[in-house]
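so the lab meeting is tmrw and i was supposed to have these ready like two days ago... anyway. pasting both below. for each one the top line is the aa sequence and the line under it is the structure tokens. i havent really looked at them closely yet so no promises
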Amino acid sequence: MNAPKEIAFPERFIFTVASGRCGQASFTEWINCHVPDAHAAFEEPHARVRLPGFLGDVERRVRRQFVETDELLGRGRVLAAYARGDDGYLARVAAKRVAMAGRWCAAANKSIYVDVSKYYARGLHAGFSRVVPRFGLAILLRDPVANMRSFLNRGKDFFKDNARPDAPRNCLRMTDPDLAKGELYLWAWCEMYLRYLQLRHSGQVTHVAEIPTRDLDNAGRMAEHFRALDLPHRPLVRVPVRNTNLEAGRGATAVSAEDLRLFERFMNRLPASALDSLSVLRTYAPQVAA
């Protein structure tokens, strides 16, 4: 019997903190188009569906349960494990993801793996931090009210991808039982930023970049972020900003006066201690779409 092949792990890892709906697809394209040594993976593993129509929906559910599972993606049991503090389980899932990253990078002859996913900081980060002792870190920052409106346009189940706001391990615990769906997404935006700060100050981060989504339409600004992350790159050519809501046939994100009222209500619920940490919100002034 042949001995199993050794897995060549990537030399470097960069993880991305993201609320979702904040430019992950565009960021992935910037890296894969311009950084020769890096492989950027956008919310992998994807369910590799081959059957059409209704059969494809059935195949996707089966593959998410048994092949490219929800756990490997970073949801399902991962969210529950993070909430109860089972970092051993999270480390086992992360080790499988690291092995997958090694195979992808080896196949593409790349030495840097960039994980671009909203699921990383929702629980898998606690496992990855055990398996990958040193790593780069980027956060994609979208206007929080526009981010909320984009999610509401998407019409997804909030709790499929997020823990409850009152979960004991959260950085920002909110116990209000009457949080509106939009407020849940505002809470998730704040929670992701606080987890980013927690990771940034963990002592494991080698390079860091805070990337506002408006920078994804600016080659000069992206060059600065690549330098911050120590990503040698080719001359940058503008990457058209992708809007996956529009690509899916949904409406454009247009912030309304009602969205602003919901934001004000949410801000009035935030404890003072949270506002001290969320310095990015101190001068934030959302505007109704023109």
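ok protien two:
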Amino acid sequence: MPDVFPRSVMFPEYINQIFYLVGEVVVLSAVAVLILSIIVTLLIIYSFKTGNFFAARYMLLGIVLLENVIIALFWIFRADDSIVNDVGVRLRNYINNKKFLMIPYKDRSIFMPQCVRSTECPAKLTPEGIKCINCGRCGVGEAKKRAEEMGYRFFIVPGSSFNKRMIKKYRPRAIVGVGCHMEIKEGLDLCHSHGIPARGVLLSKAGCVATELDWDLFYKSIEEK
């Protein structure tokens, strides 16, 4: 069988050198990514256990850029990778905190997911979200009452596009969002794109219906001055 490439055909020496250099760059880049990912992973574990943050903005940048590698490291060591998202939310809250607290209550909005409601909730869907009637079947009615007395605008979110519409319509200067890890992450990114300082409050039990929220934590988040 004849050779596909004749033996007499040779790559010029400079081509071989280029291939070698490219290979070195790829290997060194992979090693650098792995080292940085390990460092950020250790910082995540430290922050999760202590509640303290070291070089918060750089740490958040590392999580954003290296998230897949970091999660892979958690899988390899059989650790709970939800820690990554949990610390990511805390970091964003920490970074936003100073600007958030400068905004008066009357210029803040709260976005509460509809899944926190009772499964027997009689509230109706309107163009501005689900309108709570404070029936007492869940904690949302009391939360809405207390928040609005403080000056907050309170929304119960029926779907993913709702937040964008309400932000565009009412232009809040600060936002408190409640949700699961993914919803909080997307919401905080959305607020960042609009230059709005935001605070995320994670559900204590996620899901599509009958989710649970630590109400004490929620009230602490909206009442802090």
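from a quick look at the 2nd one: The helical segments are 13-50, 56-76, 82-102, 140-150, 162-170, 181-193, 215-223. Residues 13-89 form one domain. will dig more after coffe
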